Structures
1.
Amino acid sequence: MITFEDVSKTYSGQTKPALRHISLQIDKGEFVFLVGTSGSGKSTFLRLILREYRPTSGKIFVLGKDLVHMHQWKVPALRRQIGTVFQDFRLLPGKTVYENVAFGLQVLGRPTSQIRQLVPETIDLVGLSGKEDRQPEELSGGEQQRVAIARAIANGPKILIADEPTGNLDPQTSVGIMKLLDRINKRDTTVIMATHDQTIVDQMRKRVLELDQGNLVRDQARGVYGTA
Amino acid sequence: MRHTFRETWSGLKRNASMTVAVIVTMTVSLTLFGLSVMTFQEVDRVKGRWYDKIEISVFLCTKDSAGTSQSGNCEPGQDVTEVQRDSIRTRLEQNTDVDEVFYESKQEAYEDYQRTYADSPLLDSLKVDQMQDSFRVKLIDPENYQGVVAEASSLPGVQNVLDLHEVLDPIFSVLNGLKWGTMGMAVLLLAAAMLQIGNTIRMSAFTRRREIGIMRLVGASNLYIMLPFVLEALFAGVVSTILSGSALLASYQFLIERNAKVSIQALPWITWSDAWLAVGLVAIVAVVLSILPTLITTRRYLRV
């Protein structure tokens, strides 16, 4: 599903590489934690999967596509298969919950009839039934993140990338979000989640990839946050 | 599609003052550009049939020409005779400075006059007999005209010798100044308009950066993301075209059709079809002008 072969990335104007010689494979339906300190290369790793950047060297394959040689105009098609969630939710102010979820489908040119069916289903799945007409700022942080997750998965992506999705949430709310991501993962969506949250990683016992200064220092099935 | 139009409309509303500024700049620059095109057309028309072909016109005597201030070598009350006419032609053709000699009869001159002033009230004011027979002379070297003018002026039967360039060049120097002046100003203003459109679109993209970010994230196509901006710029372009097109057609109607054609009847003037052609060119320039900076500006926001 996702394959990195000896991938390095150095940002232009910098001498220190953000990622060094990363090789790994993530299979369909896996749930993977990506851990490491700030600046360890987690975000770069996720951005390479989204083809926001090309690697400086090495090969990346996502969903059978060679990202290094992918044409610029094919990038949108790739991203339609990858849902993305961020720490800061990135909801559109002034649009209701329903409109925020529908927006992601509208801009892909999905017909209104499909949108009318998909949006309520997805809102229901993330547990926000009855809050369709609320504005994002009227919701709690956890609820806002659920809206963002609904938008990310409404189009039925094969991969869900979550960059610190619980970073702004209290532990109790985070548990709810993790249960939701787990449920999405069980519906055959590969989930890759970058996180600092030790408790969550230790509780979930999923595969853990640890990055340190751009190096992949640990790849552990059913791992915990820290080795120490 | 509905979403695209809604986005375009909200963009226009949000940037209303900038859009107005763009429209004003574009309208003024396009109008200047159109005026310049019309001046080019007018210069071409004034040059007419003869300007690029000949240098000197030799007008022959008519019954009425003697006794006036420009009686030349005419016998009072006499047309030029056949013998004089032939000898003038021979003398002109034998002159070593002359390249070619064309003869234009009264009748031909009259027909030319009718064509040039086809839609003028002057059309019926002259009769065939008031026209003059003439020789149109092309020189080998246009600078070297004095000898031919002097020789032709001395021949019997010649009423007047006219150096066409001497008559028209002062007019052309005004028209040339006008045409390059308007063109220069138009180009400067068009460049300013382009920068302004680029800025407006940048602002518009900036206020929509959240939406654009999400569109890129979920994989909306570049065309889909760009379309509202292109339409926004195109809207300004179309409105400016309509405004400057109306200004051009109105100035044609009031300056040329109503005014110049009536008061300066000695010169031929451009017609409605010339004016419409200028408007067409303005429309093409407007479309290119609005889309080009938009594409350049939005590329930066779409780079993935």
Note: The longest helix of chain B spans residues 164-207.
2.
Amino acid sequence: MSARYFGASVARSEDARLLTGQGLYVDDIEMPGLLHVAFVRSPMAHARIKSIDLASARAMPGVVAAYTMGDFADLAEGPMPPMAPHPLIKEPLTCHPLAQTEVCYVGEAIAMVVAQDRALAESAAMAVMVDLQELPGVADARAALATDSAPVHLGRDSNLLASLHTKFGDVAAAFAAADHSLTESFATHRGGCHAMECRGVVATYDQREDHLSIYTSSQAPFMVRRHLATYLARDEQTIRVAAPDVGGGFGPKATVYPEEFAVALGALKLGQPLKWIEDRQEHFVATNQQRDQFWTLDVAFTKTGKILGLKGHGIHDSGAYAPYGLILPGNALVCFPGPYALQAIDIHLDVALTNLVPTSPVRGASRPNVAFILERIIDKVARYLGLSRDAVRAASFVRASQMPYFTGGVSRDGSRVSYDSGDYQKALDLALEKIGAADFATRQRAALKRGKLLGLGLASCVEDTGIGPFEGASLRITPKGKLVIATGAAAQGQGHATVLAQIAADELAMDMADITVEAGDTGRFPLGLSTVGSRIAVTAGSSVHVAAQKLRSKALHFASLKLEVSADDLELSEGAVQVKGVPGLKIPLADIARALAGTTGVPLPGGMEPDLAATAYFESSGVTFAYGSNACEVEIDAETGDTRVTRYVVVHDCGRMINPMIVEGQIRGGVVHGIGNALFERMLHDEQGQPLTTTYGEYLLPMACEMPNIEIHHLETPSPRNPLGVKGAGEAGTIPAAPCVISAIENALEAQLGKAAPFITHHPVSPLDVVDWLDDAQ
Amino acid sequence: MKAAPFHFHQPTTLTELAGLLATLANAKILAGGQSLMAMLNLRLFNPDHLIDINAIADLATLRHAAGKIEIGAMVRQHVLLQAPLIAQHLPILSQALGHVGHLQTRSRGTIGGSCCHLDPSAELPAMCALLDADFTVNGARGRRIVPARHWFEAPMQAALAEDEFLESISIAPWSSTHGHGFAEYARRHGDYAIVGAGALLEADVDGKIGRAALVLFGCDTAPQRLPQAEAALIGTKVTELDVAMLAAEARAQTMMTDAQVTSAYRARLAGIMIQRAVKQAQGRINKERA
């Protein structure tokens, strides 16, 4: 394989189309007779539905139909199928496409209206009369687990959905052997995904073909098809689900949603195509979020700062339902012990139901929460012992010589967690060097003269990426000699079409311009799972690589038969198979494709299989572990508490990089996301579960003006666990960013307040927090 | 998030506009649309008639006449920020405009729109209060002048009758030797301020304050002038201002509280921002005198 494209910052082949308005997002889909849907949503966090009266809505101008769940009784009934069943959840807890008897969060869909346009549909939705009997709502995961808490669901005696547990080693022995131990409690908070494109669905039913087509802004179109087929008791063959261009996913679009089902049911019922485009107000109340995790942990450590063990427990806010099972809390437990070599851990996590919109992964999926806790604990140990923060990390890291390193933990698939490769200390050393830690004190003194408190933050992380079992790919040479790559892996803007083409182009010695990628469409590839967990480069990337090798062998075999030359003496070059060293003696791939497409009555050479094509499902059985260290500086205005991140350095290792520009884009976006979690984004609810931050005036997304320059340095330790040596990169920017920024804030306050400086145990941190800390200490 | 149906009108003259307002019930005027369009889409307003005044050229004039700067209601924020006339005569307005939204919103947003919408944290109404602007109101019943102290009738409610519109805002510049200062705190660049402050100071030949104006915004539902602090400044030497007294006075004003910001934090910011604004003004006045 030549490396003409692999490793190069090739311009994204998607961009010319997307940047000139030629993208095809769900809302760009038009078809004759298309009608528009608006949902009637619960204004209460918990209520019994006494009655729903659609009569006035049906009489409104432009209204074609209005439905409650009962109207679909001939098509389907009951709650949606669970996406990720788990033995600890005895009864699946998913909502109905439209709620029938009870609503359990503000925003839960109750009825839908179909009209000529969206504005008319919204007017009619406002005319639907829903008689709700308000019930007590539970908004705090800790309160939900109190014995006297109101139930989140009528008829469920406990709000505890499940209790998860992870342990390895002898935690009692680790604590007994330790010189010191400490107990700390943490409150981590993350908001929603806030993709630029909200969700959206178009559904159309072809009665003659008995075929249902769904276009949805999703990370998991194959999951939508699978569960919709189950729900409708239809064969998957009669449903096509496609994710066209998708403007960002970040996790929440990997869930199968009630609106996808409801719009499909409406299209089946009405026999007309329907479109629903989620607006930003709906996104705030009806798209999954991540929100709260509360933790209390004991840490055991030596006087030299080596961490020996962790024990304790956490509470995870699941929201009102568990459409994605226990994936998000489960992930949290898999994240321990991070980049540190510990003797033992023993950690419990209770999953609490609340009357809030369900939670599911948001970029990082619990990894940022656990990184926050681990990094905060490391910083605390350093302060306690009077050691530097990097010294405690150095004493506790898994060392490069220990790779592959078995942490002692067990992965989601039941296998033993083993870190594949890397040098964690090297990443931290490089981050400290690049931020200029050595002369930080000089900068800090200079800042103080300007009345600003300067702080230096550090954080390290490790991230499991590329989880299996597979994303497949098929490659096919067309009669014009072009290559079409088809994969189930849906893209949401990551640049899959570019990187997958880079891999194939090198293997087949083709020009990128001759390659197209078709992705995320059940009509174009038979199987697919989900674009989550930084897994596509590893899974689909490796499948493209393996399929390209197969296709290459097939082309060489054909040419060796035709040219009567050993395949070993053949090579691929510029879209043709040629005899090595004899450029004139060649057969274009187009000719091979045409020959293998067959001619009636003419046998294929040498009994070859038809079609110049190959399919591969690389089995990603060993998880790859990306890692890195970040360092940053924050500047605090001691009067207002205003906190700005002024410098940010990322050192990151995701194995071999297919396209460094795309990796850097992922990292940079991820860091912005993490800075948002550190300083800005908070999804607030009142005690009853009413959301309080439902516009971008109230919910503060970080913007470009608030961002520092983000400086990125790469290490490239190939993963031994896939043929490309790659690891995932989609979430690594986010995971350590919040603890890095918080560490810097604490460092700044410590310089000012000494021992009176707070130990910061929550995020996001607001300027109100900062002035309180400054006031309390003085 | 789509607006409810409404009738759309686009007058091109003031007479036409006055006629529409006199005859249409439940009408709303559309200026730059930077707040109204979102509110329509959120259905916070459901007018039967939307009257777009963007095509009325007479509302978009900016002139210096009879010792006053007269700003048409439809003058864009971006135009004001770029105008040498404003920079020269109303420098505090230029400074404040730099904090109003972003380039994109300023290119549409208008001074009249901002002063009729009256967001409590908006910079432009606060500057009008500080500068004792006169609001020229027009309508089928004729023209009248509303001084700034009467403009803020109720929370987010200007002193306009249903059949009236804001035609222009006229402001008498302070002397060329005055000092101005503006400070605000917002979490993100371009956001409405949590709290902001403006200060104008004029000194006599002896370096004593002869005229002072101070304003806070974002603290309560409308901008707050600080008449006691202003009075206390008169006669003090510019070099010997008691900024601690000003801060105390600022902190003592009425402060709102909301889901994210407490009244105590607003009070703290009010004290800080008034000090910062006054110190800027002090520095500029000294420079002029030197």
Note: Chain B touches chain A at residues 1-5, 42-43, 185, 187-192, 259-262, 265, 268-269, 272 (CB under 8 Å).
3.
Amino acid sequence: MQPPTSKTAILRDAVGIGLGVASYGVSFGALGVTSGLDIWQTQALSSLMFTGASQFALVGVLGAGGSALSAIAAALLLGFRNFPYALRMSSLVRPVGASKLIAAQLTIDESTAMGLAHEKGPDEAVGGRYAFWATGISVFVFWNAATLIGAVAASGAGDPKVFGLDAAIAAGFVALVWPQFQGPLERRTAALAFLVGLAAISFVRPGLPILLAGAVALVIGLTSKPSVTS
Amino acid sequence: MNLWIPVLVATAGTYAFKLAGYFVPDRFTQHPHFNQVARLLPIGLLTGLIAVQTFADGQAIVLDGRIIGASVAVLLLMRRAPFIVVVFSAALVTAVGRHFGVWI
């Protein structure tokens, strides 16, 4: 596939990605209020935390009856991947002064992927730098608007189980992790983490099974011979 | 429990990770295990979340309509369905089955 190089093409992709995450944002807004957060807290996560998987994990653990500490730990562990993203984007985007603070906030899966995809553009104006900002801003706007819609809609919806919302949450996590099952190591990690998480449910406090599943990934990541990736 | 505490503490922490990348030197990424851990950690946590979200009710393991919803999701993802179709179908199938008392 030929990567689009014109500004318009990048912008079109950025808006497309924004629309894509919007569907997920509606789910997040709904999950936030059904997990016991109010609309303001749910919205604060989308604006201030702005990293989907961590947001889902936080409300997922709280909704399952986990402690604040396990919820925070799950969100931080999932948010850790933004650190290598930011390291990479730092040399690509090269923000100066206060724009560093904004670039940091917009550093997520989508903006990083778009930045890398267009890294070798013809010049800075239509290259990775532009793709990073366009995608980051687009996703931020759509994600927050969608969260508000989902939160407002779900706060008047009554019992979430009647609408199958609890199953939608499980399905959402499956869809979120699915594209990451790229190689045998990824699939082995997923299978083992799933089994450990499942086995731990009855034996440890809510929230901890998720952290144990994360620990499985950490051990596998540290002990396996690193494979060559981007 | 005031839920603003986990919301704001976790927000500060995740932002610190993002910000750190713009202020520390690039040497970190040279470590071969670093990127591998960064790649596998979300996979482990998210599959752990799937296990809990599908089977747990507090500390009990419950088999209910959520398994049907998650299975629908897997089938649709194998057929490369888009995200919104996956989530909506999972909710719909689970809700309809519950309505007619096929599962709880």
Note: Residues 32-55 of chain B form the longest helix (24 residues).
